[in-house]
């Protein structure tokens, strides 16, 4: 029986391997297929005893990653080999030297960048952040490291179903926090959209499935609408002799979800559920003129919204994206987004960075897009060289570098500068030169005097004013968004800061000695958390500067003693591993999660104030440094950062169907004002079984009523029933929960 199974698997592995070769064939030079076969054999042998969490042979994963590299990103042989071998150093006895000997220096370098850092970490540092920093160090030598990592992450997200819940939360959040913005920054739009959709699928399955169903249900009417909409455009473009395709595609699930959330509207009110894309086949030198001609044709039939024209052909986005976007009014009174681009632009929009090189190798191909990406990699390199802080600090700075929207501004001489959305006059000053930035006292924007913190808008012309007496201060960090400006300001402050940090460290050591507490990285990390500073360096600096009064360290000792006297059985829990070990010791080998409502005697935990979880909410436990375990909702505003930076501290937690306890929840009510509305609302609440109201605030303006109520409920079901009853009150338009 097992024999047949093994044989079936062997056939499936070969089938997947042959598919990879078939898809890669157009990209291969002579001798490449031989190298790929060798890499496949090494990987297959190395992983032969291993299985994925789903029970499938492990080799499926490297094969799928290699396939994504070729099919969805357009990478070549070196990347295929690296993708096939990306896990062998980490998971088997093979060393990097063996890989270098067999496959060359390039492949070994890429695999080194993809291999996680092994070893024990200092208390309070984040292994996730350290691994990410290591990968980016290799990025500055070879961008393929990141592209393969994105392929690896995409395959992990596609197969995340088989992972335990707390791992799903950690991996999905990390994906949304870092990898989706990274895919965007490298111009890989389809991968970015899929990563965001999959993140939603695991963080809020209900919302994800609801949108999928709605999009599916509206498919027939949507297709009919698209057909009618594009018919006159198609006819006209054919008569003009264009070679083209027109596609209508629905927006990604995540972007629909985002619209519903940010604008607080139901699915039916999301107007731009889809976009029409017109792709023309035209030589490079005619691209611009032809795209504008198509635009002219579209606007002959449909009236455009003048505020919604985006010309990314004259000035491509920083990640190389080129396209012409307009929003036009259809015959049915619906706004429709139309994107106009050439085959080359579409290729680059779908495949990002890798596609640039394909076009770069051809004659007279555009340098501008690839050039801006090279510039960005140089910025990342600068960031890495200047960063001697913690990996989490670095990650924050780096995320600031993954800006999605841009502003185009000009120097007094008319040179164009592209900055992230939200950039200020001070960012612009540092963009010109670090000396100009350091001496900036203000600016003239369109001939008007403004402060250094003035936010720039598209088309602004900016002249920087400087003074030799000026020098950067700590407050400047609040006025900039670019990582270049942040790095330069931090550099200028570093020397002064170093002195304060050294003083602070000495004060802390002295105080701890007086209180007979050992000075260790664990204690310092607890102090950092107690005084709510982001990093230990920041903690030392604040003590050195006197922002944190050294005598206040005494209150930390009192807090520690109080905590000790509570005698939590889980005193030694610092992360998920130690929690699982302790809970199994206390409750038996079958227990690996926290039962909220039942384990109070065994485990010290509290419900997080930032999101007020109630029974029925999807939650996770988080091991804090000082306050035991905190229970957060997966929809908590802080969840993304906690799960992305400290995934190793996330533990499984679920509600028990135990006795009913009252939990605080908030409801926001919007409606049309009328006499007696409040009385009707409070009647519904007090008639509701055992509901106590804690507070109610009401605001009425020009006939519109807005109220927020805080009340005690037992569970999400209880809350939903209450929301339903309140929605039925005459005049109430909307009832929603808030944190």
Automatic annotation (TrEMBL):
InterPro entries with a match to the protein in the record: ACT-like_dom_sf, ACT_dom, Beta-grasp_dom_sf, HD/PDEase_dom, NT_sf, RelA/Spo_fam, RelA/SpoT_AH_RIS, RelA_SpoT
Occurrences of domain TGS (ranges): 405-466
Record SUPFAM superfamilies: ACT-like, HD-domain/PDEase-like, Nucleotidyltransferase, TGS-like
Keyword Transferase: yes
Keyword annotations: Kinase, Transferase
Pfam families attached to this UniProt entry: ACT_4, HD_4, RelA_AH_RIS, RelA_SpoT, TGS
Cellular component GO terms held in the UniProt record: plasma membrane
PANTHER family: GTP PYROPHOSPHOKINASE, GUANOSINE-3',5'-BIS DIPHOSPHATE 3'-PYROPHOSPHOHYDROLASE
Protein name per UniProt: GTP pyrophosphokinase
Source organism of the structure: Cyclobacterium xiamenense
Highest classification ranks of the organism: Bacteria, Pseudomonadati, Bacteroidota, Cytophagia, Cytophagales
């Amino acid at each position: 029986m097992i024999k047949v199974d093994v044989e079936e698997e062997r056939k499936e592995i070969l089938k997947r391997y042959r598919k990879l070769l078939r898809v890669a064939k157009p990209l291969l030079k002579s001798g490449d297929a031989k190298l790929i076969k060798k890499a496949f054999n090494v990987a297959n042998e190395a992983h032969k005893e291993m299985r994925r969490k789903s029970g499938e042979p492990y080799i499926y994963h490297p094969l799928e990653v290699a396939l994504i590299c070729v099919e969805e990103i357009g990478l070549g042989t070196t990347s295929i080999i690296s993708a096939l071998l990306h896990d062998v150093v980490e998971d088997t006895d093979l060393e990097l030297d063996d890989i270098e000997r067999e496959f060359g220096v390039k492949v070994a370098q890429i695999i080194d960048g993809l291999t996680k850092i092994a070893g024990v970490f200092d208390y309070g540092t984040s292994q996730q952040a350290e691994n990410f920093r290591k990968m980016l160090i290799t990025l500055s030598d070879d961008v393929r490291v990141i592209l393969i990592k994105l392929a690896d992450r995409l395959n992990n997200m596609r197969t995340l179903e088989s992972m335990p819940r707390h791992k799903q939360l950690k991996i999905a959040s990390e994906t949304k926090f870092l990898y989706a913005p990274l895919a965007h920054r490298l111009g890989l739009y389809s991968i970015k959209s899929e990563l965001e959709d999959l993140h939603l699928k695991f963080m809020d399955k209900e919302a994800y499935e609801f949108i999928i169903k709605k999009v599916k249900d509206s498919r027939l009417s949507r297709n009919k609408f698209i057909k009618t909409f594009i018919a006159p455009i198609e006819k006209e473009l054919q008569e003009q002799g264009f070679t083209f395709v027109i596609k209508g595609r629905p927006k990604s699930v995540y972007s629909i979800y985002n619209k519903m959330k940010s604008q607080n509207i139901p699915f039916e009110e999301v107007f731009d559920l889809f976009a029409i894309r017109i792709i023309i086949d035209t030589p490079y030198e005619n691209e611009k003129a032809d795209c504008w001609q198509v635009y002219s044709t579209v606007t002959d039939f449909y009236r455009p919204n003048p505020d919604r024209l985006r010309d990314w052909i004259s000035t491509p986005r920083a990640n190389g994206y080129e396209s012409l976007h307009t929003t036009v009014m259809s015959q049915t009174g619906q706004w429709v987004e139309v994107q106009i681009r050439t085959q080359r632009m579409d290729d680059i929009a779908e495949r990002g960075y890798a596609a640039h090189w394909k076009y770069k190798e051809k004659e007279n191909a555009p340098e501008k897009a690839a050039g801006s990406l090279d510039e960005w990699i140089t910025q990342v390199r600068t960031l890495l060289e200047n960063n001697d802080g913690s990996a989490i600090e670095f990650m924050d700075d780096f995320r600031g570098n993954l800006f999605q929207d841009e502003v185009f501004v000009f120097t007094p001489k008319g040179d164009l500068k592209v900055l992230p959305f939200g950039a200020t006059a001070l960012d612009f000053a540092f963009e010109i030169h670090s000396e100009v930035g350091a001496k900036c006292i203000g600016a003239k924007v369109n001939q008007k005097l403004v402060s250094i913190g003035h936010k720039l808008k598209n088309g602004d012309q900016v002249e920087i004013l400087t003074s030799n007496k000026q020098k950067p201060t700590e407050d400047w960090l609040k006025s900039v968004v670019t990582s270049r400006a942040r790095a330069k300001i931090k550099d200028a402050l570093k020397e002064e800061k170093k002195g304060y940090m050294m003083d602070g460290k000495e004060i802390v050591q002295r105080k701890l000695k007086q209180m007979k507490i050992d000075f260790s990285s664990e204690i310092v990390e607890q102090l950092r958390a107690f005084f709510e500073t982001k990093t230990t360096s920041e903690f030392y600096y604040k003590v050195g500067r006197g922002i944190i009064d050294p005598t206040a360290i005494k209150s930390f000792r009192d807090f520690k003693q109080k905590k000790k006297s509570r005698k939590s059985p889980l005193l030694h829990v610092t992360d998920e591993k130690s929690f699982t070990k302790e809970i199994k010791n206390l409750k038996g080998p079958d227990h690996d999660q926290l039962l909220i409502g039942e384990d109070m005697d065994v485990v010290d935990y509290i419900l997080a104030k930032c999101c007020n979880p109630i029974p029925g909410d999807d939650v996770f436990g988080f091991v804090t440094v000082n306050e035991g375990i905190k229970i957060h909702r997966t929809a908590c505003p802080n969840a993304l950062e906690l799960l992305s930076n400290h995934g190793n501290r996330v533990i499984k937690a679920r509600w028990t169907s135990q006795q009913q306890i009252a939990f605080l929840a908030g409801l926001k009510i919007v409606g049309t004002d009328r006499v007696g509305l409040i009385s009707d609302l409070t009647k519904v609440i007090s008639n509701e079984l055992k509901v106590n109201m804690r507070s109610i605030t009401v605001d009425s303006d020009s006939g519109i009523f807005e109220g927020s109520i805080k009340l005690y409920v037992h569970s999400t079901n209880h809350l939903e029933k209450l929301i339903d009853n309140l929605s039925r009150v005459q005049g109430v338009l909307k009832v929603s929960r808030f944190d």
